[in-house]
Amino acid sequence: MSDKFVDVVGIGNAIVDVLAHTEEDVMTRLGLTKGAMMLVDAERSAALYDAMGAGVEVSGGSAANTIAGIASLGGKGAYIGKVGNDQLGGIFRHDIHANGVYFETPSAKSLTPTARCMIMVTPDAERTMSTYLGACVELTPDDIDADLITRSKVTYLEGYLWDPPAAKEAFLKAARIAHDAGREVSLSLSDSFCVTRHLAEFQKLVREHVDVLFANESEIKALWQTDNYDEAVALTREACDIAALTRSAKGSLIVAGDNVIEVAAFPVDRVVDVTGAGDLYAAGFLYGYTQGRDFADCGRIAALAAAEVISHFGARPETPLSELLLSKLG
């Protein structure tokens, strides 16, 4: 990468999303929990794929979506993640490069296929995800580019990465390198089911390694095991320096020390698909943060980015976010 410094490097599960509109009765027949993200094996993945209607295949993965969003805003983004040496791996690599993101992680040497996520979107725009991790689990500490981490203002990690053991070690290695270089570490909790699976480890991770935390309402409640949102906010304030907590149509809350800033959701004519809303919120916030904007501005850029992605099918921006930023927020 020719530029000396990078705004944000994301580390995550490199996944190709398969999206399709799905009726509620199909969800019930398939035994899926609406709104959740579930890990599935290759056989279940194939069965779900066969049951889906006509759809589209696009590069995805939580952290990759975030970094693509940062690039769309005009920021300098890089990505670390493992794909297979197959057609879907080629699709992922082509798409992320086309988005202006630096991505040079070698493909898996094994025959393990690239990860894919079957995303079923019901008429209310809610998405249910069934993920086969595939080559993602082959990300190891050896894939962490120490020089790239050192040159990045923020290293952004997705909570989903905590499932594969080797990826977990890669995750922690990157965090140590970033902090040793005086850089910052950011984490998205990703999913309340993911938080519950690794509760004690996530609580320790947030307290000891995370500078900027992203979570929605259900995730932050799950992290602190409380049904009281205000209590969850108070516990979050004690645990990390900065937290951006999203609440869908209610907007978001940014907590940073004594600062508590409420940010309204950006208006949308019609919500089509909420896939990627949290990812693009993080993109907007981190873009603003790495450009030196104040927290209120970071929140507004985040809300704008999230609004763009929920107004259409898929988890990547269709309109360059830099153009929207100039026209809507200046």
UniProtKB/TrEMBL annotation:
<protein>
    <submittedName>
        <fullName>Adenosine kinase</fullName>
    </submittedName>
</protein>
<dbReference type="InterPro" id="IPR011611">
    <property type="entry name" value="PfkB_dom"/>
</dbReference>
<dbReference type="InterPro" id="IPR029056">
    <property type="entry name" value="Ribokinase-like"/>
</dbReference>
<dbReference type="Pfam" id="PF00294">
    <property type="entry name" value="PfkB"/>
</dbReference>
<dbReference type="InterPro" id="IPR002173">
    <property type="entry name" value="Carboh/pur_kinase_PfkB_CS"/>
</dbReference>
<comment type="similarity">
    <text>Belongs to the carbohydrate kinase PfkB family.</text>
</comment>
<keyword id="KW-0808">Transferase</keyword>
<dbReference type="InterPro" id="IPR052700">
    <property type="entry name" value="Carb_kinase_PfkB-like"/>
</dbReference>
<feature type="domain" description="Carbohydrate kinase PfkB">
    <location>
        <begin position="55"/>
        <end position="317"/>
    </location>
</feature>
<keyword id="KW-0418">Kinase</keyword>
<dbReference type="GO" id="GO:0016301">
    <property type="term" value="F:kinase activity"/>
</dbReference>
